[in-house]
Write a structure and sequence with these properties.
There is one protein chain. By secondary structure, this protein is an alpha/beta fold. It folds into three domains: about 160 residues, 3-Layer(aba) Sandwich (Rossmann fold), CATH 3.40.50.1260; about 35 residues, no CATH class; about 200 residues, Rossmann fold (3-Layer(aba) Sandwich). About 40% of the residues lie in helices and about 15% in strands. It is built from 16 helices and 17 strands. The strands form four sheets. The chain has a six-stranded parallel β-sheet with strand order 5-6-2-1-7-8, sandwiched between helices. Strands 11-10-9-15-16-17 form a six-stranded parallel β-sheet, sandwiched between helices. Helix 14 links the parallel strand 16 and strand 17. Helix 2 runs antiparallel to helix 3. The radius of gyration is 24 Å and the shape is globular. It binds adenosine monophosphate.
């Protein structure tokens, strides 16, 4: 069932509460300088549309993880507590007070005020910043907001009620508006007050970002142009089991690379040396391969491996056939023959979904496999979809972003989507 979008409802003259993802990285020193504004840029089409259509736009988002400092109920995290407990008894009180003062200062760095200031420059109009989320200042500013104006509420996670999906908190947010728009895919897998709870009190539709996620990822899962090829990589089989199990019923070919390939190699009787290996997943790997064979799904593992004598960029390396990794060596990337095989398979596809690097791409010497897959997707005429996280970062860093049809804006959310799970932030939206 498809979900309503902002284009399906009349927004003119309405107050609209929009959940965006303004969780942008900030310079650690100043706490006020945005170091990557892509998420703000990503939210602009929805905001501009609402402004142009004459809505009064109330934006809300979380920023960082202010969990340990909730308003007046200040709590220290485990590490800080342990440090203080290690001090002589008479010093502990003063150290606790100092730690709390620092925590208070740090949490102020998680204000959305710098984002509102940047948004104002990008929109070319005033953006009103509320001093709180459901307090008097936000209430007054929301009540006075006129059509075409934009305001930003303070960091939602300054209230623990946000992540607890507290109904009263959700109701208070909803009371500002007549319509709720969710455009934060990155948090759509969380049932929080601003992502799910609020939809109990307001009509709920998606913004353009979530619409695009559903169109591309939903389209690939429901009705893909074939051949449909999935490329999965990353460290562990255990974190990708859900995706593998869901996709194996849908794809024509499944390509496995990265650290998780060695558990499959071992399951086939190969030698994997010191490579990443999940012993307790070997049987599961066998089951997955049997299921693929049963369903006629092409199951491709690396045929050669770049292995290293140390887990470092400067390690000695050799390329060996898959399953022939010598003792004392570990596989850190797919080999050149595998790059060709995977690229060829991607080339012949009509839909490609990629999630997870092919090797330890953080080390330049072991990034070639990941780069080759990114290149293959960029060169392909297929509908290309990159799940968030590392693979999205790789594609963007390589400058291929505009050659990919869809780069998901959510890491965890896109993984859960590919697992076939219902995302609470999507489920809460009105059906068409
Ligand atoms: P994931 O979060 O599961 O997608 O895994 C991403 C991580 O997997 C990256 O940090 C990679 O460095 C790591 N990774 C990929 N291939 C290997 C490998 N062959 N050995 C060790 N780590 C790997």
């Amino acid at each position: 069932m498809s979900k309503q979008t902002i284009k399906d409802v009349n927004v003119k003259g309405k107050k609209v509460l929009v959940r965006v993802d303004f969780n942008v990285p900030m310079d650690k020193e100043t706490g006020t300088k945005i170091t990557d504004e892509n998420r703000i840029l990503g939210a602009l089409p929805t905001i501009k549309y609402l402004v142009d259509e004459g809505a009064a736009v109330i934006l809300c988002s979380h920023m960082g993880k202010p969990h340990n400092v909730f308003n007046e109920k200040l709590k220290l995290n485990k590490k800080e507590k342990a440090k203080i407990e290690a001090l002589p008894a008479e010093e502990q009180e003063a150290a606790t007070a100092a730690a709390l003062e620092k925590a208070k200062k740090d949490v102020k760095k998680l204000s959305l005020a710098p984002v509102a200031a940047r948004l104002s420059e990008l929109l070319g109009q005033e953006v009103i910043m509320a001093k709180d989320v459901i307090g008097e200042d936000a209430k007054a500013k929301a009540a006075a907001l006129k059509p075409g104006q934009v305001m930003v509420l303070e960091n939602l996670r300054f209230h623990q009620e946000e992540e607890k999906n507290d109904p009263e908190f959700a109701k208070a947010l909803a009371s500002y508006a007549e319509l709720y728009v969710n455009d934060a895919f990155g948090t759509a897998h969380r049932a929080h007050a601003s992502t799910a709870g609020v939809a109990d009190y307001l009509p709920a539709v998606s913004g353009f970002l979530i619409e695009k996620e559903l169109k591309f990822m939903g389209g690939a899962l429901e009705n893909p142009a074939r051949p449909f090829v999935a490329v999965l990589g990353g460290a562990k089989v255990s974190s990708k089991i859900g995706v593998i199990t869901n996709l194996i019923d849908k794809v024509d070919a499944l390509i496995i690379g990265g650290g998780m390939a060695y558990t499959f190699s071992k399951a086939m009787g190969g030698n994997v040396g010191n490579s990443l290996l999940e012993e307790d997943k070997i049987d599961l790997a066998k089951e997955i391969m049997a299921k693929a064979a049963d369903k006629g799904v092409k199951f491709l593992l690396p045929i050669d491996t770049v292995c290293a004598d140390d887990f470092s960029n400067d390690a000695n390396t050799q390329v060996v056939e898959a399953g022939c990794i010598p003792e004392g060596w570990e596989g850190l990337d797919i080999g050149p023959k595998t790059q060709e095989l995977f690229a060829e398979t991607v080339k012949n596809a009509k839909t490609v979904v990629w999630n997870g690097p092919m090797g330890v791409f953080e080390f330049a010497n072991f990034a070639k496999g990941t780069i080759a897959v990114a290149q293959a997707l960029a060169d392909s005429d297929a509908i290309t979809i990159v799940g968030g996280g590392d693979s999205a970062a790789a594609v963007t860093q390589l400058g291929y972003a505009d050659k990919i049809d869809h780069i998901s804006t959510g890491g965890g959310a896109s993984l859960e989507f590919l697992e076939g799970k219902t995302l609470p932030g999507v489920a809460a939206l009105n059906d068409k």
